[in-house]
Amino acid sequence: MSDRDWVRYATGLLEADRAAERATPLHRLPLPAMPSVPILVKDESARVTGSVKYRFARSLLLGAVARGDVRRGTPLVEATGGNMAVAEAHVARMLGLSFTAVVPGRSAPDRIARIAAHGGTVHRVDPPLAVYENAERLARQVSGHYLDCLSTLGPAIDADLDNGVPGLPDEIMHALTPEPAWIVTGAGTGATSRAIGRYLRRHGHATRLAVVDAENSAYFPGWVTDARDYATGMPSRIEGIGRPRMEPAFDPAVVDLVIPVPDASSVAAMRFLAGALGVPAGPSTGACLWGACHLAHRMSRAGESGTVVVVAADGADPYRRTFYDDDWVAGKGWDLAEPARRLERFVRTGDWGA
Ligand SMILES: Cc1ncc(COP(=O)(O)O)c(C=O)c1O
Question: What are the residue boundaries of the Tryptophan synthase beta chain-like PALP domain, all occurrences included (predicted)?
């Protein structure tokens, strides 16, 4: 197969995969005390790699193939071990390319196993911040391509929007009439909130976008003070969301509200969602549910009605031995009792207590 033929073959595969993709489920939460403000969960754990990141990974690879950065046999390298790496490993395998995730030395075995399950390998380095330069170096050494999702996701999302490629916001907006009042998501790389916020503005929707943020993260203080270069120097403890700096893909201008959520509240809400409400998800979705309760209460107090959509970025399974494990949670010093009581009262009475 010539190089040109391979590009056609790879692009065709990825486009066919995109065309065959089904919308993920929207679950309505059982909240009888708040009939005028339903909360719905958009369950992105139903994507093939179990997270919201799958579409982004496919778009990233499509762009890299079209630009000629990725050719037949090009080894791929990324500097993360999270959901993005799992998704990129899956897409790489589809194209017959090797994929290596450069991850911090102490990454949990479950994380490594998820990447391996999709055909990827990992390369451990320390300190954690050295993953970026090591990924770049490794890509050079093997004549490969450093995918560098932190820098490249923003342009990939914008290209999809310019080309009318349907994405997560299309699925939400097409499923709901009237349009939702709010969509709530978290921010890690900032990609999901960028894709949703820019889409809403581009298409003239009245739906507003709320981003929930974790303790120690730069997004809330940076957004409130309008300081793009705000830095905390501290890692987030809620996997997938919260960063020590505002990442380049995050667009504060398309975010209507950033809601800081205490870490213990995120974990309590994650467990409440899985238990009482029947939707198993990860801790970032717990943070989103907490933010959604705040918004639903605010709307109901103002006499407004409308739907609040929570984006569930991933499911519960990757967190069984961590955020769903009582001993592990106790070791973090989080007391879940008070936030759990607040959630239970909210669901029973509609009273958020604030
Ligand atoms: C668990 C989880 N939550 C939320 C997100 C959304 O964050 P981002 O801003 O990177 O799209 C991600 C992204 O990987 C994630 O893995």
Answer: 20-313
- We report the CATH number of the domain holding residue 299 as 3.40.50.1100
Whole-prediction pTM: 0.96
Q: Given 91, 126, 151, which residue is the final one in a domain?
A: 151
Question: In Å, what is the CA distance from 25 to each residue of 28, 43, 56, 59, 178?
Answer: 10, 6, 18, 21, 18
Q: In angstroms, rounded to a whole number, what is the distance separating the alpha carbons of residues 210 and 114?
A: 30
Print pLDDT tens along the chain (354 aa).
899 999 999 999 999 999 999 999 999 999 999 999 999 999 999 999 999 999 999 999 999 999 999 999 999 999 999 999 999 999 999 999 999 999 999 888 888 999 999 999 999 999 988 999 999 999 999 999 999 999 999 999 999 999 999 999 999 999 999 999 999 999 999 999 999 999 999 999 999 999 999 999 999 999 999 999 999 989 999 999 999 999 999 999 999 999 999 999 999 999 999 998 999 999 999 999 999 999 999 999 999 999 999 999 999 999 999 999 999 999 999 999 999 999 999 999 999 986
Residue 171 CA to ligand 1 center (angstroms) comes to 18
Atom of ligand 1 nearest to the CA of 249: 9
b/e per residue, 282-302, with b = 16+ CB within 10 A?
bbbbbbbbbbbbbbbbebbee
Residue whose CA is at the smallest distance from ligand 1 atom 1 = 240
Q: Domain ends where: 91, 125, 151?
A: 151
Q: Give the position, in ligand 1's atom list, of the atom nearest the Cα of 193.
A: 9
Atom of ligand 1 lying closest to residue 195 CA: 11
| CA 104 to ligand 1 center in whole angstroms | 18
Beta bridge partners of 184: 210, 310
Domain that holds residue 62: 53-151
Both 180 and 210 in a single domain? yes
- Asked if 315 and 50 count as a contact pair (C-beta separation under 8 A), the reply is yes
